[in-house]
């Protein structure tokens, strides 16, 4: 059952959230898709009158990687120019930043007036930790002041805790896929190189060490990768064998 708003979100228990986010992670094909679904669940869990965005540091620069609506994207992005705001502080200082009313809260002076002009009145930014690979913030915004009372704050913290665990797992899974792809590519390269060495040995009646030296010298002289030279040799031999028109008889 969807909650009626921030004050009515207690129906989402930590166990419910954990199961929901785990299922979501298993059902999505990328971290980006997972984060986009995540902000939708955040709005449902914390309140339908709330906008949600996720900021992640990419190569040292903040970027909004998911947002529930245009409001969240705008309220996030106006912080990046002046390099000041609640989501950046939450992410960099690893602490929750709560603004009950931007009209009276005098922090973040460079950000505050721009956010007010866009209609933001209250916000809550919570740090997200995805292991050593990703650091970000879950950002919640409202066009009304004092939206985030004690119950909404507690629910948002529970959600951020579970989201951090899911994000950490997502990063781990992605790294696992990357490592598997790298190993597969390495094995493919090794196979092609071994095939090329075998061809050179057969053509020159030489040892494997000598054949590898021939391959390496060709790579260095042409300033191309060893695998590229090996692939050319294997392909050329394959075409030559195909052009002889071998026929196979049962």
From TrEMBL:
Keywords on record: Kinase, Transcription, Transcription regulation, Transferase
Superkingdom of the organism of origin: Bacteria
PROSITE patterns: ANTAR
GO molecular function terms listed in the Swiss-Prot or TrEMBL record: kinase activity; RNA binding
Domain ANTAR: 173-234
Family matches, as SMART domains: ANTAR, GAF
Protein name: GAF and ANTAR domain-containing protein
């Amino acid at each position: 059952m969807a909650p009626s708003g921030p004050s009515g979100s207690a129906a989402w228990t930590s166990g419910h959230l954990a199961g929901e986010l785990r299922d979501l992670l298993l059902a999505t094909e990328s971290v980006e898709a997972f984060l986009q679904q995540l902000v939708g669940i955040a709005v449902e869990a914390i309140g339908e009158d709330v906008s949600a965005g996720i900021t992640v540091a990419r190569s040292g620069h903040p970027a909004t990687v998911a947002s529930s609506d245009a409001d969240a994207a705008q309220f996030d992005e106006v912080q990046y120019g002046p390099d000041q705001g609640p989501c950046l502080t939450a992410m960099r200082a690893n602490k929750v930043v709560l603004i009950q009313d931007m009209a009276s809260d005098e922090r973040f002076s460079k950000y505050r007036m721009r956010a007010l002009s866009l209609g933001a009145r209250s916000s809550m930014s919570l740090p997200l930790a995805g292991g050593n690979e990703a650091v970000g913030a879950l950002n919640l915004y409202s066009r009304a002041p004092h939206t985030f009372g004690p119950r909404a704050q507690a629910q948002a913290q529970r959600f951020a805790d579970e989201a951090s665990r899911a994000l950490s797992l997502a990063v781990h899974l992605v790294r696992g896929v990357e490592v598997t792809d790298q190993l597969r590519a390495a094995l493919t390269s090794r196979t092609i190189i071994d095939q090329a060495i075998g061809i050179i040995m057969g053509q020159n009646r030489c040892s494997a060490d000598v054949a590898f030296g021939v391959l390496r010298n060709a790579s260095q002289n042409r300033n191309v990768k060893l695998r590229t030279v090996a692939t050319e040799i294997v392909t050329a031999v394959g075409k030559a064998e195909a052009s002889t028109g071998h026929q196979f008889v049962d």
